[in-house]
Amino acid sequence: MKYIISLITLLLFSLFTTASALHLTDDSAAVTVFYGRMQQQVVWLSPGRKPVLQQLMVFFKQAPFLGLEENDYQSQFIYSMAEDTLRTLPDTDAVAADRRITAQAIRFFCDVAYGPVNSAAVRYNGLAGLPDKRPEMARLLADCLLTDSFSFFLQHIEPEAAAYAAVKKTLTYFYTALSDSGFAETPVVSLKADTTNIALIKRLGQLGFGDSIEAGRLQESIIKAQGKFNVLSDGVLRSGFLRALNVPFVSRIRELKVALNHIRWLYSYRPYTSVVVNIPSTGLQLFQDNKPVLYSRVITGKKSTPTPTLASRITEVVLYPYWMVPHRIATRELLPRIKLDRSYLEDNQFEILDKKGRIVNAADINWQSLSAGNFPYVIRQNTGCDNSLGIVKLNFYSPFTVYLHDTPGKNLFMLKQRFFSHGCIRVEEAASLARLLLDEANAQTMDNLIKSGPQADQKPVVLPVKIPALVFVLYNTAWPDNMGEIRFYEDVYNRY
User: Fold this and answer.
1) What are the backbone angles phi and psi of residue 478, rounded to the nearest 5°?
2) pLDDT tens across 79-114, in order?
3) Residues 34, 106: contact at Cβ < 8 Å?
4) Rounded (5°) CA angle 404-274-467
5) Topology of domain 271-322+383-496, per CATH?
6) Contact, 207 vs 156, CB < 8 A?
């Protein structure tokens, strides 16, 4: 047994660290690799191999609990092949059927390890595509079959991330509850927080908070559930809490499956340094060597100006940045204020630039003649502690003109609901995040500049990061908090 586990571990190391040179558009090359390893033998449908095919069927039956869809892998065809009456196939048909089963098995196991292709669905993906993992998965699968260790295969290819295990456990709980023959969902409509609210007690029990109720501690159960749904945890029933309670279990399952596959996708990029922002939870985590090293509260976009989902690379830190006001904000929000009171520009440290980047005297501009369709200028906010980007900005490319940045409005981080920006991501711990991405010399430079404060006519200072860090901005209404506990968040952008 120890030999088998060691072999699997060695093969997994190869699978997760060796970039395959093959970039496939179908499964044929991976299937070829598999049968080359298996000496061109029929594997699943050969005499005496029924237990192996049955084990594959057991794995496929677990697909829903893995955040996958069983029918995506031609499972009915494979189950039909397991029937004794269909096992007497001509040799050519048996070979074709066996290869078909192999192709689906490789796809399934790749999806378990890395997530389906669509799990990387973000509005902008600036990261190079991952190398095709199917040939390596084919080798691993073949070697496990050759060493009679197939029954251990699934548990060894799943991501080892704590977040993955936590989401999977929660998903299993919801599926198990839903499969109970006596399960029925009754909406909670009463705001009474007492034992006369039968629907409330039933729902709390379904959600796993029944122990406290049975012990006569209903208030304790309510507070725990409020924490689960990221609402004010004071034991008082409010409409927002009731909405969260009444979300159907099938909807919660859908949210958890999306989260599970996002985590698989993120895990595929280890051991890169990664910054992960989850919009609904307004939280950020920095991962180094596969471990979370920093958590920060963030402020994300309003419903009317949502933060876009994306994947990119952080390339530099800017200290004392300018804020180049986006045209939409400049014309829709600032221009009406300037027309009313031109001193608004000076009071807020704004300068006017022409299209060539030259400073223009604001007094020489006929502001009343300007509009959204006629605005040949750029408004720039000067550096300093009152700059809307704060004193630290982290740059990454995207087509959306959004950044990770500091903010002078620190008080907003105390709120539970933090959706106030025009799309950018305001980071409470922006300086700490930047420091962890810089080398020692540049981190010291940053600390010195922050300590000394902005100088007169302070210019932005650009510091390259030590190694470009991956940044992922995702949208998951089910997501681990900074302690690893799975919480459900409001669907502020109505994506589910």
Assistant:
1) -115, 120
2) 888 775 445 666 668 889 999 999 999 999 999 999
3) yes
4) 90
5) L,D-transpeptidase catalytic domain-like (2.40.440)
6) no
